[in-house]
Every structure is written in structure tokens, then in C-alpha cells.
Amino acid sequence: MGRIMNIPVADRRSPSNVLVVNAGSSSLKFTMYSMDKETVMARGVVERIGLSEPFLKYERNSDKAVKEEAPVTNHDEALRMVCAKLVDPAKGVLTSLDQVEAIGHRVVHGGENFHDSVIVTNEVKTNIRECISLAPLHNPPNLGGIDACERVFKNIPNVAVFDTAFHHSMPASSYLYAIPYDYYEKFGIRKYGFHGTSHKFVSYATADLLGKPLGELKLITAHMGNGASITAVDRGNVLDTSMGMTPLNGLVMGTRCGDIDPAVVLYLVRRGMSADDIDRVLNKCSGLLGVSGIGSGDMRDNIAAAEGGNMQAQRAIRMFIHRLVSYIGSYYTILEGADAVVFTGGIGENSAYIRERAIKKLDCLGCFLDEEKNNQVAGCPAIISTPESKLKAIVMPTNEELMIARETVRLLTVPSKIIPPCDLK
Ligand code: ADP
To answer: Is 82 a pocket residue for ligand 1 (Cβ < 6 Å)?
Structure first.
């Protein structure tokens, strides 16, 4: 009789009810999915955790979002309040918390430890903890969210999905900085890239839209929200991305400077500024906010000011477009041609104005804007270049929560039948 090996201990089917958690320093965002048809059952956020006047915003299916006081002081209490809402007889979507089958967590930095999403174990938590020096503001609350879920939901698998993981396929020629190699070896100083979950989501969604496997496409994906990054995706592998060891590098952002000569930092140090001051200026006082001087890094405010004749806001937007188009050109070259440039994030999805200004500079790459389509886009995937364009321009709404839920399902799906190798006698 044949000897059957590798039979899983538990013969598990894919989880259907998946909770996605994104824990920040003072917030806990959640989305409860039914993954059978990828529908959102409920979503919301607890904000101002540990601060004055914390509150919960909760939205069930297509009901209007409701906001209420949240008497919570930490993430455990916030999660318990969310759970109470999910099973609330009047407003809930579950009859019991036992119906939650898995939890997916956003974790910002996976360093070099993680090249993919992973089921959380104690060893995984230790490895996430090791990455805290690379993301001191994000990884601790992300871990706090995992710990809270482990305490509140006993025996439910948790999956960590990293912002950095999709970029792990980058070659060393892209991720190394041209500084002494030991700095990489000793301190892990290299480009990691961020927004990976979004770049991955829109890459797959673009492949669907174009009706081709991702493995046959070369894409340039531009995620432009308050933070912004752009990635060259070569048949599913990241070839390069604009954010670096931290999310400060690359495009002009709402309040972050993006690319800058590192000697500027040295100059400021020598002028007597502290590391903390420079950190604040480059992360919080730069970008659109810093250049325009209008007191806002929000693109809508900057566009309104520019249209109202504010020359500094006009300059800030020109810089934003210049940097974006420079990256598109560079990535088109390293990809040796591309099938599409994909716009996503709050600006990429919603601003016909910014897309028009960028795409009009891409004629030389064979990308021609269809102005009517560009102006008509409303929350749906759309090709906004003309049919004769060699390089397509695409608007693709991102959905990082859904990507986390999909990753959670993928990792926890064990084939229901293990077919024994046929040569076992
Ligand atoms: P986050 O990076 O915080 O997730 P979003 O992806 O929501 O942010 O993007 C926020 C940015 O999108 C802001 O700069 C906002 O002004 C911009 N934005 C949203 N809608 C529009 C619009 N219709 N036109 C221009 N910019 C927009």
C-alpha cells in the first residue's frame, strides 16, 4: 500500500470572515470582510486612542457612518469596542465573535526579514520587533494591534502583511546606496520601498483590466496620496521604487520633500540645526506645504490656490509634476519600455488636473491623453489614454485593505486534499 506523506494536521478550508486591522499610534482602523464575494460587511476607525476625546466611526454595509464617543485609553480597549459593535444586535454584522476566522494586519516595515506576508508566530513578532529601528513610529503600534488581537481573539490566526514586502524582488543594483558596502551589512542601510501593498494591488488589478497575466506586463505604478511613491514593476517583480530606507525619498509629497541632495542635511547640521529639527522640517514642513506656503499640503487646497493665481502654489504643483514625470521617464527606460503608467491614491484617482498635466508631458513615450475620458473618471478603473497610445495611462483605485484580506486568505488556505506523489510505492 502506498505511504501517504505530508497530510496536513488540520484540513482547513479558506477563511471567509476576515478582519483587517491597521493599528497606528493613536488609531485603529478596521474592515470586516466576507471574502466569499469580497464584500465589506463593516468598517471604521477608533481615533485619538490615549488622547483627549477619543471617538469611534463605524459604518455597516451601505449604512451612513455613525460617530460616537469611545471611552478607551489603549488599543485593547479600542479593539474590544470594535468587537462589541461587530456583534451588536442592532448595528452589528456578526452573531458571535467566533465567526471571525482570521485577522490580517498591516505592518509597515518588514526590513530584510520578510519578503512576503506571513502567519504570525512568536518568532515573527520577534523579527517585526527587530525592524523597529527602521520604522520607530509605525512598527510598535502595528505590533500592538497584533498583540491586542491575540488577547481578544484566542486561537484565531493572525497574518502580517508588510508595506515593504512587494519591493523585496528589487535587485541589489536598485536597493543599494552608493556608500561603503559595510553600512548596508552593519546597519541595513538600503532602499526598502513602501506602499507595497498598494503597488501590488493596482498591478494585479491593471493586469485584470488589460486581460493579460501580470507576468507579461511592464508597469509604472504611481501611488499619490499625502505620501507618494512610484514603482517600476517588471512582469510582477519590482525593478525599482522611489521611496527609500524611509518614506521620505522620491516624489514631492504633501509635507515631505522627496529627493534631496544629502549634503543639504549636512549643511543644516553645520548651521546648528538638530537631527530632530531637520527630521521635522523634511517630513512635516516640506513638499507642497513647504513650497506653496499656503499652510496646507493637501493637493486640493494647492490646486485651488494655484487656480486662484497664487504663484507659489503654481510652482509647488509644477515641481510635483516635474518630479513625477522624471520618475516615469526613468522607469520607462530601466524597464526598457512599458505597457502602462497607472495612477492611484487620493491624487492619482481623483485629480484629472494633475493627471492631465503629467500625461501631456509623456507624448514622447507614445502616451496620449484622452481628455474626455480623463475628465469622466469617477472611482472606477479606466484607461485614459487614446487607443493609439503605445504606453497606456490608467486610473486604478487602490484597495490596501482588500489586498491584506486577500493575502490573509492566501496564506491560510490549505489545499483540502493533498494528492500523494505518484511515485510513492
Ligand atoms: P493618504 O495618503 O493619507 O491615504 P489619500 O490617498 O486619501 O491620502 O490622498 C490624499 C490626497 O489626495 C490629498 O492631497 C488630497 O487633496 C488629494 N485629493 C483627493 N481628492 C482630490 C481631488 N479631487 N483633486 C485633487 N486632489 C485630491
So the answer is: no
